[in-house]
Write a structure and sequence with these properties.
Strand 1 and strand 2 form a beta hairpin. Helix content is 31%, strand content 27%. The protein has helices at 44-51, 74-84, 100-108, 117-130, 146-157, 176-193; strands at residues 2-13, 16-28, 32-37, 59-64, 67-68, 85-88, 164-168, 196-200, 212-217, 220-223. By secondary structure, the protein is of the alpha/beta class. The strands form 2 sheets. The chain has a 6-stranded mixed β-sheet. It is built from 6 helices and 10 strands; from the N terminus they run βββαββαβαααβαβββ. Helix 3 (100-108) packs across helix 4, helix 3 runs parallel beside helix 5 (146-157) and helix 4 (117-130) crosses helix 5 (146-157). The longest helix has 18 residues, at 176-193.
Amino acid sequence: MLSLTNITLTFPDGDGRITAVDDATLEVAGGSVAGLTGPSGSGKSSLLAVASTLVKPDSGTVSIAGVDATGLSQKESAQLRRETIGIIFQQSNLVPSLTAREQLLVMGEMDGKRSRRASRQREADELLDVVGLSSHRDARPAALSGGQRQRVNIARALMGSPSVLIVDEPTSALDRARSEEIIELIVDLTRDRGTATLLVTHDMELMPRFDTTHQMVDGTLTLMPAAVGAGV
């Protein structure tokens, strides 16, 4: 479960402050996808930063898997992210020198527990199989298509079985067919793995795939009609 309650976030602006997120409330249950749309500069990225504990809000509460993240120290927040949050960036940001399998294993090594290396290797292989890349696990990014690189990005975010998935414009660099495949994959994985997924997109045609759809304009978040975000 991801729960944002009365979130307000401001930034310095000359002698005053500008409001990026204005009293936003959003709840995403495990196994469901909440879509987030809105014009550029509306506050979507700021809301994602708060939801992923990268930025603390001025006020309000962020609850992740039952933990109040707003009361945590920087170190505790970093630990919470490693253990419970997967982030899928707009660009795959894969390391050019690493194979698809190694991209996942690097994430798995972050806690430094060498005793878990064998289980991480099994998890990486299983995830690459789930996203349809088991035959490409030894390929480096230059040998993969844009859609394949994004699939590695998705598998990497799922290492460690996070309970929350934060997704930022995952199809912006893909054509229509690849975009639909990637969104379907994220939705299916959300259902199968029980993650609470918050996904930003500008593509209104994708909205019916989500359980709920929310729009952000000038920092204000509103729930869109059920006909737009109708799920499957």
